[in-house]
Amino acid sequence: AQSVSQHNHHVILSEAASLELGCNYSYGGTVNLFWYVQYPGQHLQLLLKYFSGDPLVKGIKGFEAEFIKSKFSFNLRKPSVQWSDTAEYFCAVNAYTGTASKLTFGTGTRLQVTL
Amino acid sequence: KAGVTQTPRYLIKTRGQQVTLSCSPISGHRSVSWYQQTPGQGLQFLFEYFSETQRNKGNFPGRFSGRQFSNSRSEMNVSTLELGDSALYLCASSLGLGSDTQYFGPGTRLTVL
């Protein structure tokens, strides 16, 4: 069975600081990788995704993530965070079998950006 | 396009009762998945439906069940509610190709007293 680990549970940054959130997954087959964000009081929104091709993917609001297959990692980055980035971030893996799909989520990282 | 909608948004039930939650997917999406979100366990997969058939199931007791209708709308039912069933229940829809992106609804907040 697949699993996802997010190493940082709570991160506090000042505005304009750089962000990197770690995500590692465990699964031997083909995976699709996602980062979702949950802003306070809002529903889960897709931030970015990786299916194949260029391992560096860009998402909304200046976020990007790099898929490193040899390390089973999919870390999220942003060069300069804003106060509005305060939210909970979830890494997810879809280890699809060709038909059925199932997202396995990490435990989430709560990001707090201070002014 | 309208997003995934879930009704009701909030529910309060007592132990032993049963509850039915509803989800309407994005137009054209044929797959609906359900997840449970709690502070302790995080986001956990319940089940996935495609073309009215359950295609995948998570590790939840048989009290949790679901179904999907011909218009792709889905319902989830929890019988004999327990305190531990208090959670945010999220529905997600996708095209149903197996490897595509899931889009989430706002969730139904269930409180069991």
Distance from N terminus to C terminus of chain A (CA atoms, Å) equals 41 Å
The percent range for strand residues of chain B is over 45%
Oligomeric state = heterodimer
Most extensive contact: A-B, 26 and 25 residues
Strand content of chain A: over 45%
Structural class of chain A: mainly beta
The description of the largest β-sheet of chain B is: 7 strands, mixed
Unreliable stretches of chain A (pLDDT < 50, length at least 5) are none
Number of strands of chain B: 11
> What is the number of beta strands of chain A?
12
What is the class of chain A in the CATH system? Mainly Beta
**Rg of chain A, Cα atoms, Å:** 14 Å
Structural class of chain B: mainly beta
- Low-pLDDT residue intervals, each spanning 5 or more residues of chain B: none
How much is the radius of gyration of chain B in Å? Answer: 13 Å
Q: CATH homologous superfamily of chain A, by name?
A: Immunoglobulins
Based on Cα principal axes, name the global outline of chain B: globular
Write up this protein.
The complex is a heterodimer of chains A (115) and B (113). Chain A has strands at residues 3-5, 10-14, 19-21, 24-26, 32-38, 45-50, 56-58, 64-68, 73-78, 87-94, 103-105, 109-114. With 115 residues, chain A is mostly beta strands. Chain A has one domain (3-114): Immunoglobulin-like (Sandwich). In chain A, the strands form three sheets. In chain A, strands 2, 5, 6, 10, 11 and 12 form a six-stranded mixed beta sheet that branches. Chain A has a four-stranded antiparallel beta sheet with strand order 3-9-8-7, with no helix packed on it. The mean pLDDT of chain A is 92. By secondary structure, chain B is mostly beta strands. Chain B has strands spanning 5-7, 10-13, 19-24, 31-38, 42-50, 53-57, 64-68, 74-78, 87-94, 103-104, 108-112. In chain B, the strands form two sheets. In chain B, strands 2, 4, 5, 6, 9, 10 and 11 form a seven-stranded mixed beta sheet that branches. In chain B, a hairpin with an 8-residue loop joins strand 9 and strand 10. The model of chain B has no long low-confidence stretch (mean pLDDT 94). Chain A binds chain B through residues 32, 34, 36, 42-46, 49, 51, 90, 92, 94, 96-108, and chain B through 31, 33, 35, 42-45, 48, 50, 55-56, 58, 90, 92, 94, 98-107.
